[in-house]
Amino acid sequence: MKRAILVVTVALAMILVNSSGPASAGRPATRPQQLVQAIVVLTAQVDPSTIKAPNRRQRGAALERALHATADTTQKGVLALLRKRQAQGLVTTIDPLWIVNGVSVTAAPSVIRELATRPDVRRIDPDLAIPAPITPRSTATTELSPAPPEPNVALVNAPALWNLGFRGQGVVVASMDTGVDGSHPDLAGRWRGGSNSWYDPYGQHPTVPTDVNGHGTATMGVMVGGDAGGTSIGMAPDARWIAVKIFNDRGAATSTAIHRGFQWLLDPDGNPDTADAADVVNDSWTLSMGGCNLDFQPDLAMLRAAGILPVFSAGNYGPATGTVFSPANNPQAFAVGATDNTDVIDPSSSRGPSACGQPIVPRAVAPGVSVRTTDLYGLYTVASGTSLAAPHVAGALALLLSAFPDLSADRQAAALEGGAMDLGPSGPDNDYGYGRLDALAAYRWLTMPDFTVSASPSTATTTPGGTATYTVSVAGVNGFTDAVTLSLAGLSAAQATWSFTPPVVSGGSGSGRLDVTTTAGLAPGSYPLTLTGTNGSTSRSAYATLVVPAPPDFTVAAAPASRTVPAGDTTTYTVTVGTLNGFTGNVALSLTGLPGSVGSSAFNPTSVAGVGSSQLTITTPATAPPGTYPLVVTGTSGSLSHTATVMLTVTARDFTLSASPSTVTVSRGQTASYTVSVGSVGGFTGSVSLSVTGLPAGASATFSTNPVGTPGSSTLRVRTTSSTPRAAFTIRVIGTAGALVHQVPVTLTVR
Fold it and tell me: What residues form DSSP beta bridges with 253?
């Protein structure tokens, strides 16, 4: 089942808020809040299905202008708030992202919570930390002459397209990986060069292509490597490459860096009028957890809309089923599994089905076992894994785009699938996908009658129990005139019902309407849909998203997390109510957990309308028993109820008693003096009456001040007489204040 992505995610922020440390006595907590790294995705999003232009490059430029315009217009409110909170020390970084219309932030949990209540915020994603993939390397430097293609390159028929004159010329291939060793003899001359051909979002290697890991160098060699090592190792040796180093030198990537990398690939020089975007993008990485994560779905959708097919390695988590992880299992990705050179699937190659709902994943397989490719320091390596399979497909796309420069991303995917050599059970399956890559067959397929499928809008929103409508268009290619049957995947019968009108598009071209009616219990979230048109054994797909927003709701938070108060005093907390998804109701506030003997409570005001705050006042009696009490603030609006927990620590009022020096020696008839000091505990301010016991015979005691205010001191004088016995005596000084009694011993030695 797909993992529902909440429209607004605040759990991370709330956890961090509630884990704050205790406050100092009688004052709000001053301990800094633990900062949260997150990506705030705005509600306003560009619908790529509305972007129309005569060719692929012009569509990409028009799309980028629309993305910039939407971000510039709709991010103003969020950015203004973040800059205000930054001036208050609650935000440290603000990084606007136009490709997803979002903002990457590092902020206090209170700011994340505040952002989550805004109607212009769709959701808040954590800024993930993603480890770099590892490719085992076995250095091989053998040179052969002449330079035959490597067996894996020959197997997928790349040389056949070379012989037709298509070697990737005019095509720019991009890598999102650990970087590229730009000095390698098989790669140096193929780098496009210039400031728009290398991007390190971490700034560790700002101008020179660098790879300290080797993984990105290995994948680039499969895509564009030449024959400097004695064999032809690359699929498209005349293509040019650019690269984003999404993994830093420590081998880690962040969601922010990946989003920035995707938008850089759409416009490396920041000028939409310059045709310098990538034509092919290879991503030989995935997340390391299962389920359907759609954090990068907007990026992939925009790449496809710009005519760039995002190629992903399926992952090396096989042979178990359901092991193609995100983003490779997103509908907009083209996931690639691995086979050996005898067309047997690699046991470790990840398998479907997809947690994101599309019928087939991986989409295809390619050689990924014992692949000879480029390594660091000008060397070569033999490596295995789907990381090596995916760049075979990316390189094949470069060959096809040399022959057919204006192919849409959907058409590129269809050619790869239509030309694939079927393996395993007859037809597409979740082990081999549509089959093993065959570049020549894909080229030939592009000249045959076929059809494409598209959907508009790309995203539709409805409430549980409501209906969303899409237009599904079928267009014939190369004289196709047959009927196409429409179907939908991505939702179960328990989640929705749907119908196409008409269910079959006749004549090879036309459109139909898809109505999706959700069930009343459908959970809020984003649901990726796959709309498929089928003619005989040929099927083509389009992708759309169904968004079910969460119902109106509210949040309750209380600060500080802890207060300390002396018995008999009053303390306050601030209770804040936030709104989610357009909530406008009244929230009534109440408190539980406060025993009557400990104190009484009052809210001002007792209810909050929509968004606002209330002051919670706790008044304790002087007799309140000391201790720590968890208090639960509850906000209620109709059937909705949310809570926040704070701690109340009550300390008893008391005084301290001390005397110095501890020992005094006098001769009979002399007077001994002691200083008696009274201190305050828990705000005690009363008077303390002093007395003594244990005086020897013939001795008397006086206090210079009695009773003593708190804090204060008094001089105790003990006068002896000639009849006082010679000995050491323990005298106890007693302080009394109501029911409170303390005593302290001193020694009197009489000689």
Answer: 130
CB distance 104 to 89 below 8 Å = no
pLDDT (mean) for 109-126: 88
Helix crossing, 76-87 with 109-116: angle to 10°? 160
Kindly report the three-state secondary structure assignment for every residue of 29-56: CCCCCCCEEEEEEECCCCCHHHCCCCCH
Angle at 239 between CA 165 and CA 134, to 5 degrees: 130
Instruction: Find, among 194, 167, 168, the residue nearest to 182 by Cα.
Output: 194
Answer for the pair 386, 363: CB distance below 8 angstroms, yes or no. no
Q: Which two tokens stand for residue 262?
A: 């995707």
Which residues are CB-contacts of 112 (< 8 A; sequence separation ≥ 6)?
10, 12, 13, 36, 38, 105, 124
Intra-chain end-to-end CA distance of the chain, in Å? 93
- Smallest CA-to-CA distance from 449 within 538, 334, 342 is with 538
Instruction: List pLDDT tens digits, range 455-506.
Output: 999 899 999 999 999 999 999 989 999 999 999 999 999 999 999 999 999 9
Short-list 96, 94, 90, CA closest to 13: 90
pLDDT at position 514 over 90:
yes
Question: What pLDDT is recorded for position 20?
Answer: 30
Q: Are the C-beta atoms of residues 337 and 348 closer than 8 Å to each other?
A: no
Residues 6+ apart with CB under 8 A from 69: none
pLDDT value, residue 21: 31
Instruction: Give the pairing type, strands 640-651 and 562-566.
Output: parallel
Q: Is 264 helix (H, G, I), strand (E, B) or coil?
A: helix
> 180: closest CA among 224, 128, 236, 143?
224
CB-CB contact of 574 with 563 (8 Å): no
Mean pLDDT confidence for 181-210: 96
| Confidence (pTM) | 0.75
Measured between alpha carbons, how far is 117 from 81 in angstroms, rounded to an integer?
13
Q: Please give the pLDDT value at position 137.
A: 52
Sign of the CA dihedral with 333 first, then 337, 343, and 345 last: negative
- The rounded distance, in Å, linking the Cα atoms of 196 and 180 is 15
DSSP annotation of 395: H
Mean pLDDT lowest among 200-204, 580-584, 677-681, 744-748: 580-584
Q: Which residues are catalytic?
A: 177, 215, 387
Beta carbons within 10 angstroms of residue 536's beta carbon: 9
Give the residue carrying structure tokens 């051909």.
Answer: 197
CA 368, 374, 376, 379: dihedral to nearest 10 degrees?
120
pLDDT at 167: 96
Taking the CA of residue 426 as centre, how many other CA atoms within 13 Å lie in the half-sphere pointing to its CB?
1
CB burial readout 245-283, b (16+ within 10 A) else e: bbbbbeeebbbbbbbbbbbbbbbbeeebeeebbbbbbbb
Residue whose entry in the numeric block shows the structure tokens 């971000």:
71
State what percent of residues in the chain have pLDDT above 90: 79
Q: For residue range 140-149, what is the model confidence (pLDDT) as tens digits?
A: 444 443 468 8
Look over the chain and give the mean of its residue pLDDT values, rounded to a whole number.
90
CA distance 258 to 535: 38
Six-digit token pair at 497?
């019902």
Sheet holding 553-559, edge to edge: 553-559, 570-580, 612-619, 600-604
Contact 267, 64 (CB under 8 A): yes
Contact 234, 222 (CB under 8 A): yes
pLDDT in tens, 20-69: 332 333 333 334 568 889 999 999 999 998 888 888 888 999 999 999 99
Looking at this protein, which amino acid is placed at residue 262?
F
β 612-619/570-580 pair status: antiparallel
Look at residue 367 and tell me whether its pLDDT is greater than 50: yes
Q: What is the mean pLDDT of residues 724-739?
A: 94
Integer Rg of the chain from CA: 37
